[in-house]
Amino acid sequence: ANYGPNPICKGCLSCSKDNGCIRCQHKLFFFLRREGMRQYGECLHSCPAGYYGLRTPDMNRCSRCRIENCDSCFSRDFCTKCKTGFYSHRGRCFRACPAGFAALEELMECVEGCEVGQWSEWGTCSRNNKTCGFKWGLETRTRQIVKKPAKDTIPCPTIAESRRCKMAMRHCPGGKRPAKTKDKKKKKKNLMERAQKQHSIFLATDKTSQ
To answer: Half-sphere exposure of residue 8, counting CA atoms within 13 Å on the CB side?
Structure first.
């Protein structure tokens, strides 16, 4: 090779003083490095980050990964390692895993998550296992786990939830009225009797004054 003693020509079959390697030895990859306005060829055993090795009959080359946020790739369209902060999933890089997949933090990969079915209808409004006798109660709905996650450490979404509801029948048919209702009725009766008594006293006093 020309300019053999020059470090820039290491591994070259042919080399230019200004442009570096032009052709590489059979097992090496040709990489065109750019530094500002200048570019020169290098012959490498493996391609740098962001590139993958493309073997051809003519000459092996380092080709750039075309996948966004990819640090190293197996081919143009398949990433093997994403940049820091991104999760790898089916050859692509994601800031957050797609729906139905969970993040495996130790490997920064997306794996199959816990799959759940559709919510059921809301259940009957009840309280203390009764559907009457109270003004407010709780109603519940559930959903089933359709597919368990790939890792036991990956949690499943909630499969049951409840909410406050107003009961259709506040008083149970044929049942006794709550004690609170009796107290209100008794209090009202006492107030009426007290008012009638005060009215009688007022009338008696008014007659005496005449």
So the answer is: 15
The answer to whether 12 touches 43, Cβ cutoff 8 Å, is: yes
Q: Which residues contact 175 (CB under 8 A, 6 or more apart)?
A: 132, 133
Phi, psi (degrees; rounded to nearest 5) at 199: -65, -40
Determine the residue type at 36: G
Q: How far apart are CA 8 and CA 182, in angstroms?
A: 101
Strands (E), 25-147: 29-35, 38-44, 51-54, 61-64, 70-75, 78-82, 87-89, 92-94, 101-104, 109-112, 115-116, 136-142, 145-147
Neighbours of 20 (CB within 10 A): 24
**What's the token pair of residue 69?**
């946020």
Cα 92 to chain centroid, rounded: 18
**Residue 81 bridge partners (DSSP):** 72
Residue pair 75/55 in contact by the 8 Å Cβ criterion = no
Q: What is the pLDDT of residues 3-43, one digit of tens each?
A: 445 567 788 888 887 788 888 888 899 998 887 778 889 89
pLDDT digits (tens, 9 = 90+) for 114-130: 888 899 999 999 999 88
Task: Judge whether 157 and 151 are in contact, CB under 8 Å.
Answer: no
Structural domains of the chain, with CATH = 7-64 (2.10.220.10), 72-112 (2.10.220.10), 116-173+183-209 (no CATH)
Residue 26, token pair as written in the block? 């059979």
